[in-house]
Amino acid sequence: MPEIISEKLLNQIIKFRQTLHRYPELSGEEKDTAARIKTFLQQQKPDEIIENIAGHGIAAVFDSGKDGPTLLLRSDLDALPIEEVNDFAHKSRNEGVGHKCGHDGHMAILAGVATLICKIKPKKGRLVLLFQPEEETGQGAEKVINDKAFNRIKPDYAFALHNLPGYEKKAIVYKEGSFAAASKGMIIRLQGASSHAAHPEQGHTPAPMMTKLIDGLMAIAKNKKNFKDFTLLTVIHAKLGEIAFGTTPGKAVVMATLRTYLDEDMEVLTEKAEKLAHELSKEYDIKIEISYTEVFPATNNHTEVTEIIEKASKLSEAKLLSIKEPFRWSEDFGHFTANYKGALFGLGSGKDHPSLHNNDYDFPDEIIKTGIRMFYHITQQILK
Asked: Fewest beta carbons within 10 Å, which of 88, 89, 209, 224?
């Protein structure tokens, strides 16, 4: 089939990607990134640009003017608090911040789609290109869906991709059903009473409860009979009091990451972790406070759109890899697949490519064309 992306266009997109890489911004702070995206999109003359969605989110709408479904393609705006160690020309200029998950590449791919769609408009329905904030913290997608501005979009279908180091460059990685795990950060604060270290009996330290809580939490996920599929609980931080050799500590905190392939298993895991904490609180007479952060639902790919991905990979001349097990990492795109028909698929970054979140990671520009092709052919199937 004829090439839909010229070398001139591809070079323009690569240059844009490297500019985005040079000026990364953290979750919730993507103001300048959104401004760059807006400037680029305006040149493609969409029918509408919707700004300030859930903060700095921005969307371009290409409307056929005819009845039909609304298709949403999503990329992410935010970077990570990781100092870059690379020394190439487009190295991050924002100290302590870097695009170490490839969101710069995801944005560039969607920008590339805009350059095609402005010339080849949908035959029916609408195409919405969404640049979403705050993916890394797990808050962005839910905020977008709950934002009043999103009422102007209301998609029938939603698709996204994520680059995947460890897989052959340009390969398309997909799976029906659960594609990426649900996860949440659990924070349990323990409050007793401090005293002089010479008289611990005059206080009420949470130390005994803390140690039993850590052991108990890690044991919950290992009891596989309580769950239908993969579950994991990782204690990631624990702190007892302060460094003061004259003081018996009166407070402590335990933090853990809960991870499951199924949302229903996450409910069970959460319930059992909370039950343990409350039982120990009563046993040791220690007050507790439980909170959660970075909550990601499982990303479940709809079976009926699998054929769309398969056909798009064939038209894109990309190798298709079907995986058996979901990925253990999480993606807040699960909020979209929980509400709309759609899927998240992977785009191979290279078998030996630095891993996501590594300080020497950089999005491989060689896979941009495949990403643009995939989204374009998904668009053609739904809005042709």
From this structure: 89
How many Å apart are CA 66 and CA 122, to the nearest integer?
9
Angle at Cα 171 formed by Cα 167 and Cα 174, nearest 5°?
85
- Ordered domains of the chain (ranges, CATH): 7-179+298-383 (3.40.630.10), 182-296 (3.30.70.360)
Does residue 221 contact residue 240 with C-beta atoms inside 8 Å? Answer: no
pLDDT tens-digit series, residues 344-376: 999 999 999 999 999 999 999 999 999 999 999
Q: Is 82 left (phi over 0), alpha (psi -120 to 50) or beta?
A: beta
Tell me the torsion sign for CA atoms 290, 295, 301, 305: positive
Taking the model in full, what pTM does it have? Answer: 0.90
What phi and psi, each to the nearest 5 degrees, are found at residue 187?
-120, 120
Cα(194)–Cα(196) distance, rounded to whole angstroms?
Answer: 7
Q: Which residues pair with 296 in a beta bridge?
A: 183
Q: How far is CA 215 from the centre of its chain?
A: 30
Residue 144 phi, psi (nearest 5): -60, -50
Strand ranges (E), the chain: 48-53, 57-63, 70-76, 126-132, 157-165, 172-174, 177-180, 182-191, 195-196, 231-240, 247-248, 251-260, 287-296, 299-301, 320-322, 341-350
pLDDT at res. 296: 92
